[in-house]
Design brief:
- Helices cover about 60% and strands about 5% of the residues.
- With about 1300 residues, the protein is mainly alpha-helical.
- Helix 19 links the parallel strand 6 and strand 7.
- It starts with 7 loop residues before the first strand and ends in a 12-residue tail after the last helix.
Length: about 1300
């Protein structure tokens, strides 16, 4: 027996009888089962029509006797059939499919393609629905009609319901049938309808409830349909929507009520019943008409017609949860519902356990640093602070932030005030440092770490949703880009998802940083664009229907008018409906208890084609005072604090708040969370554009000056930034008195400094530039200090922003009008830094040396380098490390700036004039010991340690490196990034290189905290080089190099791109990738030709890869070029020297065995061998195996008596490489030993070593090298001797 066959069939009359005692209120347990029953009944009729083409015979009397209720609850198997149990099952089951109906064949005839009028069928079913919801009570009108017909002899004969002897409801039995719709075909053919008047006892089951016999129904083909009232149903508490539905079915006959609302087809009835079940809160529940009459039409935040777009965003989010960061942008014209779609996604995200940060950019509030970004993070922290239930989460987050960011969290707290509260920081204790190289880069890095902490702490994806990106400031875009950039989030457990909304057509002229956000070459995140157009008519119909809580069938006429007037613009639709409500054309009807409208008047109403003009007209209809107040509010953006407007009301002596509250009542504003919000940006724009251009400037200036009076007294940063922004929007043309120029310039200076503290250097430059524009002629004479400070600050911001042209223009002014050389030093320093960053490093060095001479500091580069080094050693020998660490702090401003010049020279000369580096180092150490320690002093000590380490005294060098690191705790971390970077290069010659890798991670973090991307990239490049030496798997290195390449591209550092491209090509060649073909890039070729350090690296990489693939002629050519430029290379010890010495030594010994100039090449190889022997004395772990391998290769060059020595050294090299975890060098030692035995003719030993080399190379991931090795073996050994294990 099937599950369905296990259910019970109950006569509909019995089912109805069970509900006679129920009251059909919304809360009634009988209402939903009744709705399910009626929906099923309508559905069954539709299915029969679709499958057989037949419809039931219209009749107002006997349908109910031909309907069977079918309960197919799973509990039916557990109980024997009992009518009361069956009723209980129907009432308590929540499954929609557990209540079904069957219509017995008697109701259908055998006519195919029935064209029977639908009105009679709908009317007959309406009568059945009436009886269902009335609890068995028949319409009084029908009862009266039947009495009249009987009295007049109209009862002309009756038909038995079933053939004699047919009893489908025998107690305890069930009807068995197979299939669903096909049963009607079987039943119609199998059962012969009878005209026999005899009545069986089973007929009584349909016609009474025990109180007396039910009146016999008659069937009359020529029946008349009388008018029926549904008022009795309303009195029983049946919801009005159900009563109206039944009335509309009966209207098919009545024709006296709303003719346009009558049903035309049974499918409409079925669909309406389904909506009542699916969305009872919208369509089933009665509306509070009295309340609606008071408050008017309310447009909610429900999303209509955007299911596909929402699914796209959800899918992208799910990918971010399980994979990499994702970027989704929603775009479309204003009013298409971008923000609403983002809001709907936010609901889903929060229900899914995600973390949501939301912010909104504002065209009139661009004077606040990182306005939307800061607001998003601050709002999230505020939620943690305000919700007591989230206290454990707050403490957990605070602990993790302190652990990961330490004191650097102070810099984030400037931008995110609520974070300061979470961390327990007082605002007056937050550090405002001046030593950061690039505070904006630092902030980007710290934001990335903050997102990591949030995501990792709560094991959830952090979603940042920013609205109105078309108004985004470039600093915020750069910060978001950094979050999306590969490597931006270092932790593999941190997940990030970005959702942005912007208006289509309003970003084309934005600066290049906007394009960066969507640049897949730089951003590793997968990007998805979601475009929103206007709603189609079906979606608009749904919107109108659900807004009015009326079934779509009833609102379609209104929806059609609105669609053609608005073209489906969602914003226009909502505002038009509100407008119609205000005008009384769309109103709640107290008599009908629902919304009604005047279709003809709405159709005739003239509307503007543009929604902006519609808003303008709406505002124009307000009183002058309200319009003026809206204009004031529009000057401050789309959202403003109520307290701020109250302050402004007091300053301007205007009645703002009351007027704005009137606008709230008109639906133009929202008032919530202590803020006034324009209901939409287009309303704010309409209000603002009601003022002409001159009035806009005049009002902005008056508001700014009014707020300026509060800045000194209240000390509120928000008021300061708002005042300055208002004045700058007005411009110098709005100034009315000369004295105001200085006030505005000073205000911009303060605002610019505040923006710098908050790490928004683009905005800070804008403030300084605006301040300069307000200065009048002869300002250098009359306001020298103000002018110098504005120009100095602007120059610093210009350098940070990479705006070299602006830096030059600003610097020229200071150099021309500065009253002393000391006043010019800041811009001169910034200018030399700019030269170094713009590929003019030699010019930067010469300019710095010239400036130092003017400060009385002569490097005396003509001296002997060795003498200089000895003088420095002697100077340091007079003091202990403790005495050096306790040296006083430098206080003389001129010397402090001089140390900055020397620190920059140290880095520059290391690349271009390495012979002069000791002279710079000596000066830094001399001045630090004589004048006091400055933040630049550790640079001198670390470079000195690295320099003497390269000369061979690694132990002494290691001492000075550690001293430099200790000095950082004394003088501050301004130079920490560079010091850690250089110190790590010395450490790897003392400590195992695998363990030293993490030091470069510290250097990278310190660099990013200082905002020094150059040193951060240098740390990354050197770490990647260390990984190569350490034998990290090639695929892992390739991934690291790809991330590094994107970071270098994003920051436009060509010199690093040249280095990384060379390393990438070598790795791809070793892996055996098809992507290793070299592509010539003109800019890179120029750098190779002009920069000795880059040229040296290029020649070495070419020599290395030629050696690895046994192209000895190329290896010899490039290693010769390498030796030619080696002398003029980096002055201090670096990781690159390790591979340089190893492979140039191996190539030299290889060339010596075959070259006529053997002695020269042998000497070069011997130099490398002795270098590794010396290094092995300081760090056996890293250098022993390399020294042994060079010893073996050197012995291979000698006569026969050294071959046994060579064998011993090969074995030692292999053993040491294996012991110290250098798998790549173990493979290399095996390979070179195999060639050695091959030359001796010991093929068996040679084959064994080739096999071992192949295995180790494969373990390293060098599959291309494995292939090359296999080809050599295949061509050099007989097939019989080649083991299958050698095959690639």
């Amino acid at each position: 027996m099937t599950e369905r066959a296990s259910g019970h069939r109950i006569p509909l009359t019995e089912w109805i009888r069970s509900f006679r005692t129920f009251h059909y209120s919304i809360a009634s347990s009988s209402l939903i089962p009744a709705l399910r029953l009626t929906r099923s009944l309508a559905d069954e009729i539709c299915k029969v029509k679709e499958e057989t083409g037949r419809s039931p015979t219209p009749s107002r009397f006997d349908w109910i006797d031909s309907i069977v209720v079918y309960s197919q609850s799973k509990r039916s198997n557990e109980i024997s059939f009992d009518i009361e149990n069956a009723f209980d099952t129907i009432l308590t089951d929540e499954d929609d499919d557990d209540i079904r109906v069957e219509i017995l064949p008697i109701l259908f005839d055998n006519t195919e393609n029935d064209e029977r009028p639908m009105d009679g069928i709908l009317y007959s079913l309406g009568i059945v629905f009436y009886e269902i919801f009335s609890g068995g009570g028949r319409p009084a009108e029908l009862e009266q009609t039947q009495i009249v017909e009987t009295t007049n002899g109209c009862e002309t004969g009756t038909e038995e319901l079933f053939d004699e002897g047919f009893n489908p409801f025998l107690q305890g039995e069930t009807i068995h049938h197979d299939g669903e719709l096909s049963m009607y075909q079987n039943m119609l053919s199998d059962y012969n309808l009878s005209d026999d008047d005899s009545r069986s006892s089973y007929d009584m089951a349909f016609q009474g409830d025990g109180d007396g016999p039910r009146k016999r129904r008659t069937q009359n083909e020529n029946y008349d349909m009388c008018s029926v009232s549904v008022e009795p149903l309303k009195e029983k508490g049946v919801p009005r929507s159900v009563c109206d539905l039944i009335a509309n079915m009966l209207d098919c006959a009545n024709g006296t009520l709303r003719k346009d609302e009558t049903y035309q087809d049974m499918s409409e009835v079925r669909d309406d019943l389904q909506l009542l079940l699916d969305k009872p809160s919208i369509y089933l529940h009665d509306q509070d008409i009295e309340r609606l009459s008071t408050i008017g039409l309310q447009i909610g935040d429900t999303l209509f017609g955007r299911n596909a777009e929402l699914s796209t965003i959800k899918e992208a989010y799910r990918r971010s949860v399980s994979g990499d960061s994702e970027l989704v942008t929603i775009y479309g014209h204003s009013g298409t519902g971008k923000s609403l779609l983002a809001l709907e996604f936010g609901k889903y995200l929060l229900s899914d356990g995600g973390i949501l940060l939301t912010g909104k950019f504002d065209q009139r509030q661009q004077g606040k640093p990182f306005s939307a970004l800061a607001s998003a993070f601050n709002q999230y922290c505020g939620i943690l602070l305000q919700n007591c239930e989230l206290a454990p989460s707050k403490h957990k987050l605070a602990h993790q932030i302190n652990h990961v960011l330490g004191r650097e969290a102070h810099h984030l707290a400037k931008l995110i005030p609520n974070l300061a509260s979470i961390l327990g920081l007082e605002s007056n204790c937050i550090i405002h440092d001046e030593g950061c190289t690039n505070a904006q880069n630092r902030l980007q890095y710290l934001l990335c770490r903050f997102v990591e902490v949030i995501s990792s702490t709560f094991a959830a994806t952090v979603t940042l949703c920013l609205d109105d990106l078309q108004w985004a400031d470039s600093a915020s875009i750069a910060a978001v880009n950094q979050l999306l950039l590969t490597g931006g989030l270092a932790s593999p457990n941190a997940k990030f998802f970005f959702l942005g909304c912007y208006r289509e057509g309003e970003t084309d002229n934005r600066d290049s940083l906007w394009k960066t956000l969507c640049n897949n070459d730089l951003v590793s995140a997968r990007s998805t664009d979601v475009k929103l157009d206007c709603m189609d008519e079906e979606a608009l119909t749904t919107m109108v229907s659900e807004t009015l809580c009326l079934l779509p069938r009833l609102t379609r006429s209104l929806s059609s008018i609105i669609y053609h007037k608005t073209k489906g613009d969602p914003l226009f639709v909502s505002r038009l409906m509100i407008s119609l409500s205000k005008e009384g054309l769309l109103r709640p009807s107290l008599s009908w208890r629902r919304w009604e409208w005047d279709k003809e008047k709405i159709q005739c109403q003239k509307l503007p084609d543009d929604v902006a003009m519609f808003f303008t007209n709406s505002i124009e209809a307000l009183s002058e005072d309200v319009k003026a107040s809206l204009c004031v509010l529009s000057c401050f953006g789309s959202s403003t604090k109520t307290a701020f407007m109250k302050t402004l009301e007091r300053l301007l002596h205007k009645n703002l708040l009351n007027n704005l509250d009137i606008a709230v009542e008109e639906g133009l504003l929202d008032k919530k969370d202590g803020r006034y919000h324009f209901s939409h940006d287009r309303i704010q724009e309409a209000a603002y554009n009601m003022m002409n251009f001159l009035d806009q400037g005049r009002f902005h200036f008056s508001y700014g000056m009014a707020l300026a009076s509060l800045v000194a007294g209240e000390g509120d940063d928000s008021v300061l930034l708002t005042a300055a922004n208002q004045l700058n929007l007005a411009g110098p043309e709005a100034v009315q008195e000369k004295s105001q120029n200085v006030i505005v310039a000073n205000l911009n200076l303060q605002a610019g400094k505040k923006a710098m503290e908050m790490s928004d250097f683009v905005l800070a430059y804008s403030y300084f530039d605006n301040g300069i524009s307000f200065l009048r002629k002869k300002h250098w004479e009359k306001h020298y200090k103000l002018s110098l400070e504005l120009f100095d600050s602007a120059a610093k911001c210009a350098l940070t922003n990479g705006d070299i042209v602006s830096l030059e223009l600003v610097s020229e002014q200071v150099i021309a009008y500065g009253r002393s050389y000391e006043d010019k030093l800041n811009v001169l320093y910034l200018f030399t830094c700019a030269l170094g960053c713009s590929s003019r490093l030699p010019d930067s060095i010469e300019k710095s040396i010239e400036i130092l001479r003017k400060l009385g500091i002569d490097l005396q580069e003509w001296r002997n380098t060795e003498a200089c080094v000895q003088e420095t050693i002697t100077l340091l020998s007079t003091r202990t490390d403790e005495e050096i660490l306790n040296t006083r702090q430098m206080t003389e401003p001129k010397m402090i700036i001089a140390l900055k010049f020397l620190g920059k020279l140290e880095v520059g000369m290391t690349q271009t004039k390495p012979r002069s580096v000791p002279f710079v180092t000596q000066k830094i150490i001399e001045l630090s010991l004589a004048k006091g320690m400055s933040p630049m002093s550790p640079i001198g000590f670390v470079y000195f340690g690295a320099f003497i380490s390269k000369r061979g005294d690694i132990i002494s060098g290691y001492r000075y490196v550690k001293l430099a690191l200790s000095l950082l705790d004394k003088v501050g971390a301004e130079s920490a990034s560079e010091v850690i970077c250089i110190a790590t290069q010395v450490k790897i010659f003392v400590e195992p290189i695998q363990a030293a890798l993490e030091y470069h991670d510290d250097g990278y973090a310190a660099s990013m905290v200082a905002g020094d991307v150059f040193i951060a990239l240098l740390n990354t490049l050197l770490k990647n080089s260390c990984m190569y030496v350490a034998g990290v798997k090639l695929q892992t290195m390739l991934e690291k190099h790809d991330k590094f390449e994107r970071l270098a591209k994003e920051n436009n550092h060509s010199i690093f791109l040249v280095h990384i491209k060379q390393l990438q090509r070598d790795i791809l060649r070793l892996i055996g990738s098809d992507e290793d073909e070299e592509v010539t890039i003109p800019e890179h070729e120029k750098l190779i030709a002009s920069n000795n350090s880059v040229l040296k690296t290029f020649c070495f990489r070419k020599a290395y890869i030629s050696f690895m693939f046994r192209s000895y002629d190329d290896a010899k050519e490039y290693v010769s070029k390498f030796f030619d430029c080696r002398e003029n290379a980096w002055a201090h010890l670096m990781v690159t020297h390790i591979n340089n010495a190893l492979y140039t030594g191996l190539i030299s010994f290889g060339v010596a065995r075959k070259s006529r100039d053997a002695q020269c090449w042998f000497a070069r190889g011997n130099e490398s061998k002795l270098t590794f022997k010396r290094w092995a004395d300081s760090c056996q772990w890293t250098f022993e195996n390399k020294w042994y391998l060079l010893e073996a290769e050197e012995s291979f060059c000698h006569n026969d008596y050294d071959y046994e020595v060579a064998k011993l050294f090969y074995k030692q090299a292999i053993s040491s490489a294996k012991l110290h975890k250098f798998v790549h060098e173990e493979a290399l030692a095996y390979e070179l030993a195999a060639y050695f035995y091959f030359e001796l003719g010991e093929t068996e030993q040679s084959m064994e070593y080739f096999l071992a080399a192949h295995e180790r190379y494969h373990e390293w991931g060098a599959f291309g090298k494995c292939n090359s090795l296999f080809e050599f073996v295949k061509s050099s050994f007989s097939p019989a001797s080649i083991e299958s294990d050698v095959a690639p």
